[in-house]
UniProtKB/TrEMBL annotation:
One of its GO terms (molecular function) is DNA-binding transcription factor activity. It comes from Paenibacillus hemerocallicola. SMART domains: HTH_ARAC. Residues 192-290 form the HTH araC/xylS-type domain. This is Helix-turn-helix domain-containing protein.
Length: 290
């Protein structure tokens, strides 16, 4: 999979931190075709957009204007329009623009142990550029067609299924953005190797400088690169891995809590218990009873 672009700089970078808290509410999924363009006389104008839109051009050509900035639209382009902008899309009767569109609101739900913290981000733009050219045209087109078919069918659970397809689309877009170049591919492979190393050495004390040195990276670049691809710092990721491993040991063994703490890299059982409780909302002993 590869993303060619972005055509315009200045957006942001999707990562797992964004996706993990992202809670979309889809309001409309549709295919914009000739009937729509005839209704608007081939000139769709919104003085101020009220909702997020992520659309994919399936055929034709046109022009997108966002707050005065212009972008040529053609087959294979993915365009993102946030709320609060002046948007105008124009096309002609010849080689008329056709595209699939998902309209949505979203909020962010972050978990602090067992407590969920909701943030209303209705008018906040996602970390995306306005226009991308996607080389993997059939894959993206298939996702949009499936979403449209599910949405129009209105069978039980259609909202959930559409939301899952939409999340898969964003995940693909995120990976394409991060791997958009040979350097991006190498960086992604490097982060994968870091994760394998961390997973295999959970029982050892975590030393950022030592791990970075094994990979011939500076500690600062190591942290920046890791967070760019995973959405969290190395120590946050190690903590997640350790807590997950501790859960497995609590469920599948009779090992004492103190011994489990050692197995996942914590010499102090009391500190491990406090950290486990903070991350899960319950103590290790309570978790074992579930």
């Amino acid at each position: 999979m590869r993303l060619i672009g972005p055509i315009r700089e200045g957006g942001g970078v999707m990562n797992y931190e964004v996706l993990e808290s992202f809670q979309p509410v889809l309001t409309k999924i549709t295919e914009r075709d000739e009937s729509m363009w005839q209704r608007y006389d081939y000139d769709l104008l919104r003085e101020r957009t009220e909702i997020h839109s992520l659309a994919y051009i399936s055929d034709g050509e046109g022009l997108l204007e966002l707050n005065g900035a212009r972008f040529v639209l053609r087959k294979g382009i993915l365009m993102y329009v946030p709320p609060g902008v002046r948007m105008r899309i124009t096309t002609g009767k010849v080689n008329m623009l056709r595209y699939f569109s998902v309209l949505f609101h979203y909020g962010e739900l972050r978990w602090e142990g067992a407590d969920g913290v909701w943030q209303d981000t209705t008018h906040a733009a996602l970390p995306l550029n306005s226009v991308y050219y996607v080389e993997e045209y059939p894959i993206v087109l298939d996702i949009y067609r499936r979403m449209t078919e599910i949405w129009d069918g209105k069978k039980p659970g259609y909202m959930w299924h559409c939301r899952m397809e939409f999340m898969q689309l964003l995940h693909r877009l995120m990976r394409w953005m991060l791997e958009d170049s040979q350097e991006g591919v190498r960086s992604a492979a490097l982060v994968d190797s870091i994760i394998v190393y961390l997973r295999d050495h959970l029982h050892e004390p975590f030393d950022r400088s030592a791990v970075a040195a094994k990979l011939a990276l500076s500690p600062g670049y190591f942290s920046v690169l890791f967070k760019k691809y995973t959405g969290c710092t190395p120590i946050e990721y190690v903590t997640r891995l350790r807590i997950d491993r501790a859960k497995q040991l609590l469920m599948n063994s009779d090992m004492p809590v103190g011994r489990i703490a050692e197995e996942v890299g914590y010499a102090d059982p009391l500190y491990f218990t406090r950290l486990f409780t903070r991350e899960t909302g319950i103590s290790p002993r309570e978790f074992r009873k579930l």
